[in-house]
Write a structure and sequence with these properties.
Layout: E1 4-7, H1 14-22, H2 25-39, E2 46-50, H3 58-63, E3 67-72, H4 75-87, E4 94-96, E5 108-113, H5 124-137, E6 138-149, E7 162-169, E8 172-184, E9 189-199, E10 204-214, H6 218-226, E11 231-237, E12 255-262
Parallel strand pairs: 1-10, 2-3, 2-5, 3-4, 5-6
Antiparallel strand pairs: 6-12, 7-8, 8-9, 9-10, 11-12
Length: about 260
């Protein structure tokens, strides 16, 4: 029997997306709270997530007593996020919206974007717009915690990267593979391929997806932050999320979490 292959975006399958990218939520959840305590100069009670997806961290923060909200361009993900919030007794506070062009009615104490969603923004104008929108949404002394994968400074168009992992919840398992298909250091565009092998008690199938990421080196991010005078960079970390172990970002650093504080 041949394997059924679905060509589509994992974002349209929030149940599987949530499993693939939500299995390590605890380390991120603890790290966010550590950052709030260590780097914010104001109490953090209200938190916003641009490009929130399924809200895998939003609902955990809501359960912990934070007031949360977020936006995302994918209606399926927003609906999934809101239904989960409501099931747990919280307001449906996610909306369909563009992370590079949004406003909020009441400012927040912190914002976060943890795993490369920022790189979906295709232009410098959109990236600067994102930083500005988040700045206008966050109170003075509040934080913006931004995690993304950097490309090495000397990476050429033969740059290759690949990653595989598995995630399981009950009788559902998803094996994920992603790889760099094309990287152009001049245009700063990288095409990423994804394969998601989905296993349920009754069927097995594969979702194949591609996405375009804008690329950033250490220098590119330094320049972007410089173009965003509302923010000051207060520290940097890697994806181990150890608040006691900050890193120094250099030309070869790849996984970085930037801690920015609103001036």
């Amino acid at each position: 029997m041949s394997l059924e292959v679905i060509k589509g975006h994992l974002y349209d399958y929030p149940k599987y997306y949530d499993l693939v990218f939500g299995s390590d939520w605890k380390a991120e959840f603890d790290y966010l709270q550590d950052c709030f305590k260590q780097f914010a100069t104001r109490p953090v009670k209200r938190v916003f997530e641009p490009a929130c997806g399924t809200g895998r961290l939003m609902y955990k923060l809501a359960d912990a007593g934070f007031e949360v909200a977020g936006n995302d361009l994918n209606p399926n993900a927003v609906d999934f996020c809101n239904k989960r919030l409501v099931r747990r007794g919280h307001p449906a506070s996610a909306v369909v919206g563009d992370m590079s062009d949004f406003t909020v009615e009441k400012k927040f104490d912190a914002a976060f974007n943890m795993i490369n969603s920022f790189r979906h923004l295709q232009t410098e104008k959109e990236a600067v717009g994102h930083f500005k929108c988040v700045a206008e949404a966050v109170e003075e002394g509040g934080l913006f915690i931004l995690g993304l994968h950097l490309n090495p400074e000397d990476a050429g168009d033969d740059y290759e990267a690949e990653e595989e992992w598995s995630a399981r919840r009950g009788n559902l398992q998803v094996n994920t593979r992603l790889w760099s298909m094309n990287y152009n250091p001049k245009t700063r565009i990288e095409e990423i391929g994804f394969e998601y092998d989905v296993y349920t008690p009754t069927k097995q199938f594969r979702i194949e997806d591609t996405t375009i990421f804008r690329c950033y080196t250490q220098t590119d991010m330094a320049n972007l932050i410089q173009k965003s005078p509302e923010w000051e960079l207060v520290d940097t970390y890697d994806f181990h999320y150890d608040i006691d172990d900050p890193i120094v970002v250099d030309a070869d650093t790849e996984d970085v979490v930037y801690i920015l504080r609103r001036k």
